[in-house]
Design a protein that fits this description.
19% strand, alpha+beta, six-stranded antiparallel beta sheet, two-stranded antiparallel ribbon, 9 helices, elongated
Length: 254
């Protein structure tokens, strides 16, 4: 059985302590409450402070929770709400399209799949929730790169690996593709990441009209893009789904 890491346990205990009771606590209060030596408590607090998880009041010297925890908490809530709002709409999209549906968000220079609806047939499929997809070659990633400034910066600064002969990697060509995606409101991936696989994706916006994720239909290229041509009905269905989720998140009409 793996041993717990004591320093992490103590740091977690400090964060819980600061989250409850008084808004701000001094070093002595924290140390005594957790049964720690002042030097040990100060070292952990200093690390948490450097990471933005704890802030120290310049006047009183007391500690409180930092802004980084709020950012992480909001990120979790945004993803949780996004998935909750998308459940019905993505189920409907999978049924109407006959293909699998993915919901993805920007995470660690890639696309994190936070929801996956299986293709509605009896074929064997693998749940892809938690999987990562590249930004530059997938439909989900290209949509995020086109509409999310952070994703755009990350994809332009990173190495754009060639997965197939159709993967776009040159900076100028990639930027031109993103311009087209912004103009049309959707992105496609026709065997640019995986041979034989195609996808269509559209962005999801929140109440601030900021891009918070993307929804995509993914399937065999001969069904999604026969002869290299995407089904217009499929594009419309994906965009309608993304708009519906956006409306449920408070974005209004797009």
């Amino acid at each position: 059985m793996a041993k717990n890491i004591q320093s992490l346990e103590r740091a977690a205990a400090m964060l819980r302590l600061l989250a409850g009771g008084e808004r701000r606590l001094g070093l002595s209060d924290i140390a005594s409450s957790l049964g720690l030596a002042k030097g040990t408590a100060h070292g952990i607090l200093r690390t948490l402070q450097l990471e933005g998880f704890v802030e120290q009041d310049a006047t009183s010297g007391r500690y409180q929770l930092g802004a980084e925890l709020l950012r992480l908490g909001n990120s979790y809530l945004d993803v949780h709400e996004l998935r909750a709002r998308a459940l019905v709409w993505t189920d409907d999209l999978a049924r109407s399209s006959g293909e699998s549906v993915h919901l993805g968000v920007l995470h660690q220079h890639g696309v994190l799949i936070v929801h996956h609806v299986f293709r509605p047939d009896d074929s064997r499929q693998v749940l892809e929730v938690g999987a990562m997809q590249p930004l530059h070659s997938t439909a989900l990633g290209k949509v995020l790169s086109a509409f999310d400034p952070v994703a755009h910066s990350e994809v332009m600064e990173a190495e754009r690996r060639s997965f197939t002969g159709r993967t776009v990697t040159a900076a100028d060509e990639f930027e031109a593709m993103l311009d087209l995606i912004r103009a049309q409101g959707w992105a496609a991936d026709a065997e640019e990441t995986w041979e034989g696989v195609a996808a269509v994706s559209a962005p999801v916006h929140d109440r601030r009209r900021m891009p918070v994720g993307a929804v995509a239909v993914t399937g065999a290229v001969e069904r999604v893009a026969p002869g290299g041509v995407l089904h217009p009905e499929l594009i419309a269905a994906v965009r309608d789904c993304a708009r519906a989720v956006s409306r449920d998140l408070g974005a209004g009409r797009f």
